[in-house]
Design a protein that fits this description.
Blueprint lengths: L8 H25 L6 H14 L17 H11 L5 H5 L5 H11 L2 H13 L4 E4 L17 E5 L2 E12 L6 E7 L10 E7 L5 E6 L11 E12 L3 E2 L5 H37 L1 E2 L2 E2 L4 H29 L5 H26 L1 H4 L5 H8 L9 H19 L3
Parallel strand pairs: 1-4
Antiparallel strand pairs: 2-3, 3-7, 4-5, 5-8, 6-7, 9-10
Helix pairs in contact: 1-2, 1-3, 3-7, 5-6, 5-7, 7-8, 7-9, 8-9, 9-11, 9-12
Length: 397
């Protein structure tokens, strides 16, 4: 069977324009802010520039102002955007907004899409996805969900605590996962709710200090205290929240991989440029065997990551669940990208540790990816479990 990985002409052109936009417009802003932006004015300026360059919101449907790329098309463009920490923010493809747009397109009613998706897709508002809870609540095991929503006249009241809610500071609304039937530990029984930021029952407890800082809106702990929402706030069907979450989680894992792969390439470019010009012991760094091994290993990790992303995206585009392929890709990419950035910093020596290049910032940003969107250990457990089940089914057990 023939395999052709050549991208469509329009997608390749968009990727090239994205690469040019990131290098000419975004990188100077990243350098000015050292990779961390908290100003809505800067976000708006970058997104306005992306709209003018014709590279904004490549993932959403044209009716919402986007370009409707499938997962394979996104892989090419998102990687180019990810070459800068601020590239995804500029294109409006950063987490958690990108994943929320994908889910709202797939699940929301037309009225909900007009109220929430349309302004989100244009960058007029931001959003967050509130599922993770402090222990013993939902984390790597979503079935441990403790936040509860109770039906009351005219709607629902939500009670619970969420933490590590990325982008919550300044978000216009939250998509909240709450248990509507069963008890913590039970499979199923969750529902998604759309909660506006001005709802008096949703309160910010604190900002969580973390190793990474580049995700806009930070990581926040939220309290839902007698938080009333109407029946129109239910996203999808009652008790089907975990099933709907899969619509978001698989693609979101892959778009994380795509964006961080761009940073891995950036780190490699910095390291190779340094190795080509720096001389030690009478030779260029690039001519020394140990440095050559690190450069080669970086290329291998980058190429292998891209291949796994492509395979998983193809499965998702074909309408398959992609559960195994996305777990494999996420686990490998999270670890490989960290290896690439770490080796690149090592090649640059004292320069890599210094603030003169952003490798130290990159290292802090990519390290948590081995935990976010499911830890490597959780994914390995799931990969092994599926593999054993497949073996048993083939053996007729």
């Amino acid at each position: 069977m023939a395999v052709d990985l050549t991208p469509e002409t329009a997608v390749a052109d968009l990727a090239q324009r994205t690469a040019r936009f990131v290098r000419e417009v975004v990188l100077p802003v990243e350098e000015e802010h050292r990779g961390v932006v908290r100003s809505d004015a800067v976000r708006t300026r970058l997104q306005t520039a992306a709209k003018e360059a014709g590279v904004f919101a490549p993932h959403v449907a044209p009716e919402y102002g986007g370009q409707g790329l499938d997962m394979r098309g996104r892989a090419l463009v998102f990687e180019e955007a990810g070459y800068s920490l601020l590239g995804p923010l500029a294109l409006n493809i950063a987490a958690p907004d990108e994943g929320n747009m994908h889910m709202l397109e797939a699940i929301a009613t037309p009225a909900q899409q007009d109220r929430y998706l349309r302004p989100l897709a244009t960058g007029a508002v931001r959003s967050c996805f509130a599922m993770t809870e402090p222990a013993p609540g939902a984390g790597s095991d979503p079935d441990a969900l403790t936040t509860r929503a109770e039906r009351v006249p005219g709607g629902w009241r939500i009670h619970g605590r969420k933490w590590f809610i990325t982008g919550a500071d300044g978000a216009g609304f939250a998509i909240v996962m709450a248990r509507t039937t069963g008890e913590p530990g039970d499979r199923g029984g969750a529902t998604m709710f759309l909660v506006d930021a001005d709802n008096p029952g949703m309160k910010t407890v604190r900002h969580i200090e973390t190793l990474d800082e580049s995700l806009f809106g930070g990581h926040v702990e939220l309290l839902f205290d007698d938080c009333f929402v109407s029946d129109e706030a239910v996203l999808g069907e009652v008790d089907e929240g975990f099933r709907y979450a899969q619509v978001r989680l698989g693609p979101a894992r892959m778009t994380h991989c795509m964006r961080w792969l761009g940073i891995a390439r950036r780190a490699q470019d910095i390291a190779v440029a340094r190795a080509a010009e720096r001389r030690l012991f009478g030779s260029r760094l690039a001519d020394l065997g140990m440095v050559q091994q690190m450069i080669a290993d970086n290329e291998i990790d980058i190429a292998a990551s891209r291949g796994l992303i492509t395979q998983a995206c193809w499965e998702l585009d074909e309408g398959r669940s992609g559960a195994q392929s996305t777990s494999i890709a996420k686990t490998f990419c999270a670890e490989a990208i960290h290896r690439v950035v770490d080796r690149s910093l090592q090649i640059c020596g004292a320069l890599g540790v210094s603030g003169d290049v952003l490798l130290g910032r990159f290292l802090r940003e990519v390290r948590p990816f081995r935990i976010y969107d499911g830890s490597s250990e959780t994914h390995r457990w799931a990969i092994a479990r599926r593999t054993v089940k497949r073996h048993e089914q083939a053996a007729g057990r």
